[in-house]
Amino acid sequence: ELAAPAPTRVTRILVAAGDRVRAGQPLVEFDQTTFAADVRSAEAALTSARQDDERARRLSDAGILPRKDAQQARAALAQAEGAAAIARRAETLATLRSPVAGVVTRMDAVLGAPVDAGAPLVEVVDPRALDVRLTLSPAQAAEVRPGNPVALSGGAGGAGDSLGTAMVADVAAALDTASHGVPVRARVTAPARTLRVGETVYGRIVTARDATAVTIPVEALVPDGEGYRIFVVDSLGMAHARAVEVGARTESAAEIRSGVVPGETVVTYGAYGIEDSARIVRAAAP
User: How many CB atoms lie within 10 A of CB 42?
Assistant: First the structure.
């Protein structure tokens, strides 16, 4: 984001939103008159301060002027040097230039309009340096570490096309007040296509692998007090309630740490509406 260095007025707009720009390319020009006048005034004050400092130092060395007066002259010179540097810097910023090669994603400058110091007018993005911002629950974020791989996807709920891969760069230490989730920043490593600023993407973060883990569809979990139960179907087609210990979860699957073994059949569709020892009818495969 680029802003005016001081209150001024827009005199030229050289690009528009969507334009590709190179590093250092001029974007917006402000009224140069005030900035040039400030530089002349600051340079004149600096010249005077240098003369005063030289005179005070010479008289102090000769014992004519008290040492404290020479120190005051030196402090005034340092202040004048700082003011001149600020004025020269402001004059340089009187023309906003792109700090990177990228794309102009926002242009709020209006020709001839006054602008306030520090008010963002132009935004330039380098598409090659985009980060992905994911939001996790506190429990999920506790399992994530920088360096974890992220599989990116689009579409509703992440069910669309693959958008490539990323790597977790940072896990925030505090909750986001708007989403009440933990922001996680991921650096895109191998995009499948060009990502757009503001695009909604979904990420699947692999935090660990366990070849012996037992998982079931989350639809099979039925809340039971502080925990969960499932219905296991025996060889006669009868459902039997069984308490389970749930481990890691995704939107579609849950790890079962105890309560079920590989190969057992569990009720998924309609699990909330059945009772223990109910007869189960298998749904036909789609």
Answer: 21
